[in-house]
Design brief:
Helix content is 57%, strand content 16%. The chain contains four helices and three strands, in the order H-H-E-E-H-H-E. It starts with a helix and ends in a 9-residue tail after the last strand.
Length: 144
């Protein structure tokens, strides 16, 4: 047991020494002008990305509001696509698989189950269309 105690104590001392060295290097690095500029650029980028996400969310919401169910090009640069979404209770799906001898589905491989469900095989699965908006990468051509 003493051997393990010595090994643990030595490893802890090594870890502490390396942690102290890391702290020292971080302190030195933080004093460099280039590092400070890098940190500022990272913070600026984070703020801009947050703004981009907010604008995208608002634009997607407006596009979905404008979608009439027919015209998928709701505005230049904005297209609505409809994706099939399957809604079902996983417990019901599992029970159905057991009751009907569909043992390949018992681990409920979601991909395999949904492929089977799309064929209309299960009456408890509701297939709906879910609109999603795609935004052109470069909107400059679509601005007024």
């Amino acid at each position: 047991m003493n051997e393990l105690k010595r090994a643990l104590h030595g490893a802890r001392l090594d870890a502490e020494a390396v942690q102290d060295e890391i702290k020292k290097l971080e302190d030195e690095l933080s004093q460099l002008q280039t590092f400070q500029e890098l940190q500022l650029a990272k913070e600026t980028l984070k703020a801009i990305k947050s703004t981009v996400e907010s604008h995208e969310l608002a634009l997607r919401f407006e596009a979905l509001e404008a979608f009439d169910g027919e015209n998928k090009q709701v505005s230049p640069g904005l297209t609505v696509k409809e994706y099939t979404v399957l809604e079902y209770d996983p417990d019901t799906a599992l029970t159905h698989a057991v009751d009907h001898g569909l043992y390949k589905l018992l681990n409920l491989d979601k991909r395999a189950f949904e492929a089977a469900a799309k064929s209309g095989m299960f009456e408890f699965v509701l297939e709906t269309k879910q609109p999603r908006v795609t935004i052109a990468r470069d909107l400059s051509a679509y601005l007024d």
